[in-house]
Amino acid sequence: MISSVLEKIHNADFFKELSNEALEAVAAKTTLRRFSADEVLMRKGDPADSFYLILEGHLKIVTTDARGDEIIINKVGPGETIGELALVDERPRSAGAVALENVEALEMTKDAFFSLLDQRLDVSLGILRGFSHRLRFSTTYIEKVIDWSQKTAEGDYSFLEHTQPITNRPGTDDDKAAQLLSTFYTMVRKVKAREEGLKQQVEKLAFEIDQERRKKEFEEITSTEFYARLKDQAQTIRRKRQGS
Amino acid sequence: MSDGKIVSIHSFRGGTGKSNTTANLAAQVALAGKRVGVVDTDIQSPGIHVLFGLDEQKMGKTLNDFLHGTASIREVGLPVGENPGEGQGRAQLKGRDIFLFPSSIKGGEISKILKEGIDFNLLNEGLQTAISEFDLDYLFIDTHPGLNEETLLSIATSDVLIVILRPDNQDLQGTAVTVDIARSLDVPNLLLLVNKALPKHDPAAIKAEIESTFDAPVTSVLPLSFDMAENASRDLFSLCYPDHEWSKALKNVVPFILNAK
Fold first, then answer.
1. What pLDDT is attached to residue B31?
2. How much is the ipTM here?
3. In this predicted structure, what is the pLDDT of residue A171?
4. First vs last Cα of chain A: how many Å apart?
5. Span of A51-55, A77-81, B231-235 with lowest mean pLDDT
6. Is residue A98 within a helix (H) or strand (E), and if so which, with residue range?
């Protein structure tokens, strides 16, 4: 198997923890498949009998809404795997996959996959390691989201200041937890901005003068003898100064 | 009588930045080449002398001495331009015609004058004398907050009254009464100055709102500034940091004063 293909297998999250030698063993169990645009790789509800590692081209991951119309839930490309989770948990396909252009992918059947796991402890361990790594990574992010949720509930937005927003590569599906964190961050920032906008509106509208009180206080001051004298003096002073 | 103008700076409540604004405005007008006096009529709680770097230990004759008949106005007026002190901002006043008429900071003298009351004719005469003897173009009066008798006198004799307020309801309410009083006393130039506007406030919206509430021009909307608060009592902020947002907004007020008829 040529080294660029091995590298692509190695780059897939699913096989990230495998040694070169184990990768060769995986590659040996795969078949190179070619699909043209609009060709269906898997349908929603089908039994999961194989998974694919994409080498070239892009696919859409689709499901259907209540009316039976197609909804694209994701787009995947080279280096990504599709259908591997269904192989492990042995459930029917949760979504379909359709080629958007010419696609080259390595297919590994369920039988080949299971026999590989049976024969090679290092491959099994490597895949398990990959899973646990992803899980640990996701847990950290989820903990962060819990922390932010609590702070946001208390109206404490200070974390926005000392957190770098996470930017996700568009179209990648490699880390849903990171996407959640990033989306959450953006959401809180927008909520905060909206809240400030409202506060400003409220404060602006709250400019109000109690006219009764204003009149009463004015009368209290101006009804004194002192004030009458002052007003008188002020007029004299002004007249004098204007005349000078 | 000289045609120098009395510019009173007033605020209904304390903490609006009145003394700071007064000192900075007076300094800016002096830098514009005018002969300027600054009187601290906040006899109860004097403070503007600090901004001009006056050493309290070395304070000579004060406004209190004048009101007690033991000093002439000539003796009270301190030429700040002759000895502006070390501060980097104040140093720019070197050679400028700016005179400070401080109030006594001695507790005994403060309570004495508050007990005896101020002779308003005498105070008024003192202000007029300050203008003529020092040949002033502008005499700035830093008043005591609220509407007590000496403040009413300052308002009554003002050619220009600048009312400082913060953009909140309590200040607006008090300012409304001050505005009514100023109109009742025929103050020729009534100007409003908003200080300590929060960053989340839109200055243009505040200006429009307050102008329509009081039917008087808002000369400027000064932002709440922590830089300002930190340096406030040490030196003249707008001279130290001329390009700061607060200083720029303050300088917008100067033409209103210079163009007042």
1. 94
2. 0.85
3. 43
4. 107
5. B231-235
6. strand A96-99
In order of A192, A197, B200, the CA distances from A156 in angstroms are 10, 17, 17
Q: Under DSSP, is residue B232 helix (H, G, I), strand (E, B) or coil?
A: coil
Residues of chain A contacting B, Cβ within 8 Å = 196, 199-200, 203-204, 206-210, 213-214, 217-218, 221-222, 226-227, 230-231, 233-235, 237-238, 240-241, 244
Could you give the C-alpha distances from A225 to A215, A232, B99, in angstroms and in order?
Answer: 18, 11, 35
Contacts of A217 in chain B (CB under 8 A): 177
Taking alpha carbons only, the member of A103, A13, A105 closest to residue A58 is A103
The CA-to-CA distance between both ends of chain B, in Å, stands at 16
φ, ψ for residue B111 (rounded to 5)? -70, -30
Interface test with A, best of B10, B125, B171, B172 (most A CBs within 10 A): B172
**At A201, is the pLDDT very low, low, confident or very high (cuts 50, 70, 90)?**
low
The alpha helices in chain B, defined as continuous H runs, are: 18-31, 48-51, 63-67, 73-76, 107-116, 120-133, 149-157, 169-184, 203-214, 226-231, 237-240, 245-251, 254-258
Residue showing tokens 């003394």: B19
Look at B157 and A237 and tell me if their CB atoms are within 8 Å.
yes
C-beta of residue A130 within 8 angstroms of C-beta of residue A15: yes
Q: What does the alpha-carbon distance between residue B239 and residue A32 come to, in Å, rounded to a whole number?
A: 76
- Of all residues in chain B, the one with the smallest CA distance to A201 is B201
Residues of B in contact with A241 (CB under 8 A): 1, 3
Instruction: Report yes or no: B259 at the A interface, CB cutoff 8 Å.
Output: no
Q: Do A244 and B201 touch (CB under 8 A)?
A: no
B240 CA to centre of own chain: 19
Please write the tens of the pLDDT for every residue from B162-198: 999 988 888 889 899 999 999 999 999 999 998 888 8
Q: Six-digit token pair at B175? A: 């300012």
Tokens of B5: 């103008």
Give the predicted TM-score (pTM) of the model: 0.61
pLDDT at A203: 60
DSSP 3-state assignment of B117?
A: coil
Q: Which residue of B has its CA nearest to A237?
A: B157
How far off is chain B from A228, nearest CA to CA, in Å? 10
pLDDT at position A101 is: 95
